[in-house]
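Entries read sequence, tokenised fold; example below:

***
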Amino acid sequence: MTHFTFRTAGESHGPSLCTILEGLPAGLTLDVEAIDAELARRQEGYGRGGRMKIERDRVEVLSGLKGGVTLGSPLTLLVRNRDAVIEQLPPVEAPRPGHADLAGCMKYGHRDGRAVLERASARETAARVAAGAVARQVLSQFGIEVFAHVLEVGGIPSPAPDPTRLWAQNFEQRHQLRAASAFHGLDPALEGDWIARVDQAKKDGDSLGGIFEVRALGLPPGLGSYQSGPGRLTSILGAALFSIPAIKGVEFGLGFEAGRLPGSKVHDPIVPAPAGSPRRFARPSNGCGGLEGGLTTGEPLVLRAAMKPIPSLRQGMPSVDLETGEAKQATYQRSDVTSVPAASVVGEAVVALALVEVFLEKYGGDSLEQVRAAFEFHAEQLREI
């Protein structure tokens, strides 16, 4: 079996974005409409800008399928850009603080920030959302759900950072709550405050960040590794979330709070599992967020990521002219007031991609049937360990 990998290509205002996934097992019936639905979710959210009124993202499958079923060969997905005007757009002469403009120009020797921002733009994440939608379909074959929701916008947090009651609800209820939210959140009481905060920032020509949470439910124990630093699932998931533009912090379970508490309040006890459980042991708490020693514990995986405000501000920020070196206001590029809801969709996608990588590494096979056989064998083994 080929190791699972994916790669994206394309520019923000180029003809298209594409992604190639290798290492998918043969025999997966691919739901293309479900991919389009995830692309549409990425374009939603209160505070989005004019670009979302132009693009209507849809995926085209260029290779790797026959009769709607994966062949085991590379799967190529294409998302066309309607706003494909890269050759007509003016140069970006004054780099934006907080964006890759200046650092990228210094790296490559450019004097036009557009040569950098076209690839550094978060528009690239549309390709990763398409790839992540495929990964979610693989995971769902084994009862694994990946679900993200927004916890905080513009410094207004959810009063319940760990909404346990919501996770006790069923799949449909969680998804209905999130679908009804303008921010992909789960607390309707916050909507009005978040909307007012975004409206004020828009009036001020400013931008807002926030925090989102990703949970993975139904994971088996033992995904990842303790054998090496890069192989730890903590490392893999952290890298995946930090690969999203504007993510400045990632935490697992209790996160930074674990550094403020004694060990007796942090570590999760191990107790005998109740009668009828598929495993011999259980955890009455989940402060570790479903990861110990770089491995899944079998408890829900809980991650949170902090997104900084978007760096393209209508009010402008001090910068310099790349050609003359003189002081100048940063170039304003059409942008959102906030895109935390979209970032949560991207976070869900990259977590799904990271989990598929380690899942197929453990249960690898050339076909879905072979993967399932390995998965079921391990589930049987866990009843004895």
